[in-house]
Amino acid sequence: MSLANLDESPNWDASLFVGVVPGLAASISTKKKRQILRALRDALRNVWRIKDLRTRRFGIYQILALTVFDIDNPGKFWPFSSAPLDLREPSPLEHFLAYLMQPRVRPKVCKLPECQRPYYFAIKPRQQYCSRPCGRIAVNRSQAKWWDRTGSVRRERRRKKMEKEKIKARYSLGL
Ligand SMILES: [Zn+2]
After folding, report:
1. Is the same domain home to 80 and 114?
2. Handedness of CA 69, 71, 73, 74 (dihedral sign)
3. How far, in Å, from the CA of 129 to the mean position of ligand 1?
4. Inside any domain, residue 146
């Protein structure tokens, strides 16, 4: 808000925005700081005026991208320049990416190694498998493993017990 509302006076305190605006390091000159802030302010104002949500979002993406990747070189594209952004019809990919950006979606990878379509959206936060069939295979597999382990322990126990009984039998026969 205060960034969008920065006036034209040359004396505003650019250091107030250090730590607020990414890329605005305390070490760069005041002149450079002001230059960056002015570009951001104008971009923000350009975005502010846009009624269409999608266009506004693209403006915000641009600001975010530039503040992360190229803060030193703004002014090339809208909303850093005032030439309006002419958007084409949204592609299916864009719709998908917009969906992917929502906070409630849970993109996950199915834990079943041989799953044919492992990339999925989970319905529940702790979901590990993409579908019932994958979940069922995993459950069956872990049960089989459990039986394998338990079974071998039981066989081992039985073997020891039989040995003991054999020894006992020998004793009782006086051998
Ligand atoms: Zn799966």
Report:
1. no
2. positive
3. 5
4. yes
Calculate the dihedral angle through the C-alpha atoms of 43, 1, 99, 97, rounding to the nearest 10 degrees. 30
Q: How far is the CA of 115 from the centre of ligand 1 (A)?
A: 4
pLDDT in tens, 103-155: 888 999 999 999 999 999 999 999 999 999 999 999 999 898 888 888 777 77
Residue 44 belongs to what domain range?
A: 14-84
Count of structural domains, the chain: 2
CA of 1 from ligand 1 middle (Å) equals: 46
Ligand 1: centre distance to CA 95 (Å): 24
**The pTM is what?**
0.56
pLDDT at residue 48 in the model: 86
Same domain, 25 and 78: yes
| Cα 157 to averaged position of ligand 1 atoms, centre (Å) | 38
Q: Give the distance (Å) from ligand 1 centre to CA of residue 30.
A: 55
**For the residues of 154-171, what is the DSSP string, one character each?**
HHHHHHHHHHHHHHHHHH
Query: Is the preceding peptide bond at 79 cis, omega within 30 degrees of 0?
Result: yes
User: Cα of 118 to ligand 1 centre, how many Å?
Assistant: 5
